[in-house]
Amino acid sequence: MKPVAYAYPRSAGHEEETQRALEASGFLSGRLLTRNPSESYNIPGDQLAPDNWFGLRALEMQSIEFQGCEGCINDNDELVPILDEALAQTAWVILTYHAIGKPEWWGWYDWDEFRKDVQSIAARDFWTASMNDITLYVRERENAVITVDVVEGGAGTESIEITLSDGLDNVRFNQPLTILFDQPTDWVGRTFTVSQNGEVLDELVFDTQAAALSLKPNERPYVLRPRP
Questions:
Q1: According to the model, what pLDDT value does residue 180 have?
Q2: Could you report the per-residue pLDDT of 91-134, keeping only the tens digit for each?
């Protein structure tokens, strides 16, 4: 088994000994609930990794009607400012819901407020993903090294070779990383292929110099080449 992200039952993972045990068991991250929104912005700004992989903070989403928890996020009006601040800090926020639309169950959260939450997230520039995927992504990004080789010819840039390495197990750490770059001016508006080991993986075209690729860090060169 190759476990990735963990949620401590009842958020009972504050002891350092418990967190060490989680790491020793093979997990890569663990999350705890917080009722303090200021604590919920994981990996803000240029920070490459969280302060504590096994003490990530997650917001406790819970309707006020359940137990009158004013420290919880009770509805969409309370969530929206947190979403906006997460974008301002370019931070990872984790939302923890229980019993959505089930007032008789523990930790109930109102269905209509949940719908509003989803709409608010979708309307903003978030990467919405599982804790597993984000954990793998951030660990890869922290270790990523990029090398680029450009082959020039008489008619301009013939090809670009990009190698993305992270030194991690490629079977387990298989999340693509986003590479932002300026393509050659003579490639603008032209289709180029992305291949690896002689196999074409994708065909892309960008109408501006600014371009982006999603590549897995597997230590093997990707070759970018324009179509004739």
A1: 94
A2: 999 999 999 999 999 999 999 999 999 999 999 999 999 999 99
Residue 173 has pLDDT above 90, yes or no: yes
CB-based contact 204:194 (threshold 8 Å):
yes
Q: Measured between alpha carbons, how far is 187 from 206 in angstroms, rounded to an integer?
A: 8
CA distance linking residue 113 with residue 118, whole number of Å = 9
**Which residue type sits at 118?**
V
Q: Identify the pLDDT of residue 153.
A: 81
Side-chain half-sphere exposure of 199, counting CA atoms within 13 A: 3
**N residues, the chain:** 228
State whether residue 1 is helix, strand or coil: coil
Contact between residue 162 and residue 179 where contact means Cβ atoms under 8 Å apart: yes
CB 163 within 8 A of CB 146: yes
- The sign one gets for the Cα dihedral 29, 33, 38, 41 is positive
Are the beta carbons of 217 and 173 closer than 8 angstroms? yes
Backbone angles phi, psi at 24, to 5 degrees: -65, -25
Instruction: Provide the 10 A C-beta neighbour count for residue 97.
Output: 15
Instruction: Extract the tokens encoding 38.
Output: 């200021």
Contacts of residue 83, defined as CB under 8 A and 6 or more positions apart, other chains included, come to: 93, 120, 121, 124, 126
Asked if 36 and 69 touch (Cβ cutoff 8 Å), the reply is no
Whole-angstrom Cα Rg for the chain: 22
